[in-house]
Amino acid sequence: MSKLRAVAKSLPADEQGLSTEAVFETLSSRRRRFTLHYLSQVGESVTIRELSTQIAAWENGVELHAVTPKQRKRVYTALHQTHLPTMDRLDVIVYAKDRKTISITDQIQEFDLYLDIVPPDDLPWSQFYLLLSAVISVLVVIAVQGVTPFSSVGGFGYALLASGVFVVTSSLHYLRDRRTLIGSATTPPEVEPPREITE
């Protein structure tokens, strides 16, 4: 029986999910976030060497073949001694120390609820929807006051406009969120492309 099944069977049905503390402890480290991203992307068991090489490439902004042994060893040591045992203890991954392999558990889906990556120059979606609602409300108030040309549209026209705007923006929001899910992109959202690509 796999470790994942053993853990699931040993817990009551209402306690089989990850706690909020476990999620935040996992996400508090960039290397643990990179680990989740890579394992989600690959979708199967990987060796610690493969994982450490990929994380070293992301951290140093280089292609896999350009990772030096020193860069890989630094990541390998931290993963082996700290990050992988922590994630294994939290039941986020299964870390087989004897074989030096790592595999992801079904708990990965619980992390999507906590990830909303907003670039520094972007407006968070909650503020965007608030601003959009305010603009539409102002237009309706102006129309009710009888200001032309806003008063010529009518209530149904404004209802249609508002629903259309919210359908379009929520669709864009959904598509953007799908791209920022763990493992959905080639590199984690917080990683810059390798130097040789940008130069």
Automatic annotation (TrEMBL):
It comes from Halonotius aquaticus. This is DUF7344 domain-containing protein. Pfam families: DUF7344. InterPro entries: DUF7344 (IPR055768). It comes from the Archaea. The chain crosses the membrane at residues 128-150, 156-175. Residues 24-102 form the DUF7344 domain. Keywords: Membrane, Transmembrane, Transmembrane helix.
